[in-house]
Write a structure and sequence with these properties.
The structure is a single chain. The chain is mainly α. Helices cover 76% and strands 0% of the residues. 43% of the residues are buried. About 2% of the residues have low confidence. Its main location: membrane. Keywords: Cell membrane, Membrane, Phosphotransferase system, Sugar transport, Transmembrane, Transmembrane helix, Transport. It is found in: Cell inner membrane. It comes from Liquorilactobacillus satsumensis DSM 16230 = JCM 12392.
Length: 378
Amino acid sequence: MKGLEVMTLKKIGKELEQHIMTGISYMIPIVIAGAVLMAISRVGASFYGISDIWESKWADSANLIIRFLNTDDGWGGMALDLMFPIISAYISYSISDKGGIAPGIIGGMLVANMNAGFLGALASGLIAGYTVKLLTDNIRLPQAAKSVLPVFIVPVVGTFITLFLIQYVIGVPFASINTGLAAWLKGLTGTNKVLLAAIVGGMVGFDLGGPVNKAAVTTAMALLTSGVYDPNTAAQVAIIIPPLGLGLATIINKRKFNHDLQEAGNASLVMGLIGVSEGAIPFAVESPLKVIPANVIGSAIGSALAVGLGAVNHAPISGFYGWLAVEKWWFYLIGVAVGTLIVTALTLLLRKEQPMEDKAIEEESDEGDYFTEDEWES
């Protein structure tokens, strides 16, 4: 009986994880689009000596380019404001198909208005999704009235129940948790702040786009809406360290990698520069016990160093195109460089050179493709 209960709980947990990861996967492109727009405006504004291009005073500037940069930053902010509605909508969609989108997105907007944070958005999506599923599974209408269910009853009743529960049950507690967490994180100084950065960095470097990575990155991005920037700074530094470190290792000592990983190393460098941690996955798959510890250590140290030195990344963007928009970007790049070199050094230290037999076999197979002189003459 206990075994059955454990299996049931595991199944429920797996389903919840799947629904939440679906919501996150739909949210990330929205966040990236908004972040890149903001990075463009802030890097552009820096050439004019402007560090607060988002302020409304620049909308009336006599300079056309500055006015456009202010508008562009507003576009980016508008996209980022969709973070909670989108994640809520697509968690709900994952549970109850397209009927859950309307209650989910409206519930996510209420969560954002109440400042209930990332946890509130997750709860909103789950409430909307399971409410709609309950309605569609249990309401039976005559054939002539069936079309009323998806276009009227489900969106109206689903939205009302979702909003009611958020407003009067979960909204205030989650808003209190979010406010308290933000105040606590803002109050961290010295060793505590560096330790938090190391933990976030280590989580991001652990599974390269997997559940642990996404949990850390998404939470860090969500905290931006509360004006908490250190977790995001740590996360964005850590995203690019593993692919850069492993790619650099393949350049420094090719003999420690087979042909496929040498090719993967070139792609990993490019993906690291544009802020995609998944470039390091082929290395982690090939040798997880060597690669994962190196990634975690390098990411943790690089993130802690960048945050400890005072770098602040206000946008959820890790690629090279956003580096100059980072406050104290030189310290940010020092953290990236140190973390990258640690991953490279540990990788080369832990790996052995590839056996020469592989190379000999490759050369032998290459030679087999050519005819001998006698064969040509015959």
